[in-house]
Amino acid sequence: MSLLSFLAGKKKTDEISVRENERINFFLKHIESYKERVNLSKSFNYAKATLIAKNPALIREVLEKIRITLSKDFHFVEDSDKNATEILLDIANLHTDQIMGDLMHAIVDEKNKEDNLRKMFVEMERIISAELRLITVILNTDSTKTNEIEKLLLELYKLIYEREVEVNAVFRTEMYGSESKKKHERVMKAVGQLIIGQKVEELAESEAEIFARKVTSKLVDPQGNTRYHKLAMSIFKTLCKLAGYPDSNIDVLDVTTRIGKYMEKDVIMRDIITKIRPDLKSFEIDGIIFAFREVYGNGHFEEVVSDIARGKDISCY
After folding, report:
1. Which of 186, 75, 199 is CA-nearest to residue 133?
2. How far is residue 106 from each of residues 76, 164, 172, measured CA to CA in Å?
3. What does residue 315 show for φ and ψ, rounded to 5 degrees?
4. pLDDT digits (tens, 9 = 90+) for 13-68
5. CB of 192 within 8 A of CB of 114?
6. What's the angle, vertex CA 28, arms to CA 295 and CA 11, rounded to 5?
7. Quick count: other Cβ atoms within 10 Å of Cβ 222?
8. pLDDT tens figures, 100-148
């Protein structure tokens, strides 16, 4: 039985074909192999699908390489008599981007982590099954039906390039900013527990983490009307001053580097926030620090940084 079927909650641990001490590396190898599938799928992207559809030898070569990256020990798909229409219906029934985004955030935010990880693995199983079945159908399609082959190749491309990225993102370290590395470590610790059949330890959120989750969206309010958005801008402008802005002799890259270093220091951040909002409780200050680091890491202040680079006055923000 495949490792993915077990992670999706379908089988018992002792039925897995991969040995226990090899499972986590096996899982990581699969996540890493996604990059290879993406590169191979570019051979039949929107710009190239029409041309490659007329070259059955090249299609077979590329699709066989993709199939090799999907180890049977990680996920085995039994022979199926599903035709192209049925497979496309399966693809249409995959979760929406919104659902997948919400699921990823729930996992990262420690909400019912085990249940939500299982849901993510179920979706991963559905996507990989669709990829493998679609590859089989394409290779078995009459090579003269180039329009049909092109359509199916584009469906496979979207599965790999758009769908698979959604189920892999929460497990890939490069998808986390420096301020979120601990979250990635906790996600992978939970995966490690699932892989060897242990119950996932649900992490109890601190008051500060709960508060951070509540205010994060308010810090980036596009209208700039909330007091938390104003607080975020005041924190950022204070960090800019500490970093040397608006000294024209200091390069903007040096400014952002210094901001990053100051922002990592809890003592400095607490001092800044306390001076701006002395009414905040201790856990609220810690929550603001968590939330500010996250929105900064997500690029919320890039427009302001761009204005600094152009020598503009940022006091209007």
Report:
1. 75
2. 28, 18, 16
3. -65, -20
4. 555 656 667 788 888 888 999 999 999 999 999 999 999 999 999 999 999 999 99
5. no
6. 110
7. 6
8. 888 888 888 777 788 899 999 999 999 999 999 999 999 999 999 999 9
Name the token pair of 78: 């039994």
- 3 state DSSP class of 223: coil
Q: How many Cα atoms sit within 13 Å of 64 on the Cβ side? A: 8
Least confident of 74-78, 114-118, 188-192: 74-78
Residue partners of 300: CB distance under 8 A and separation at least 6: 219, 220, 232
pTM: 0.65
Encoded tokens for 260: 């990053």
> What is the longest distance spanned by two Cα atoms in the chain?
74
One-letter amino acid at 302 equals: E
183-201: b or e for each residue (b if 16 or more CB lie within 10 Å)? bbebbbebbebbbeeeebe
Separation between Cα atoms, residue 285 and residue 60, nearest integer Å: 58
Interatomic CA distance for residues 257 and 244, integer angstroms = 11
pLDDT of residue 311: 59
Which DSSP symbol is given to 199? P
Q: DSSP character for 45?
A: S
Question: Dihedral angle at the C-alpha atoms of 283, 287, 288, 291, nearest 10 degrees?
Answer: 180
Q: How far apart are CA 91 and CA 156, in angstroms?
A: 10
Angle between helices 56-69 and 23-41 (to 10 degrees): 160
DSSP 300: T
Instruction: Answer yes or no: is pLDDT of 79 > 80.
Output: no
Nearest to 82 by CA among 95, 91, 73: 91
Look up residue 14 and give its two tokens: 């002792």
Burial of 38 per CB tally in 10 Å (0-12, 13-18, 19+): middle
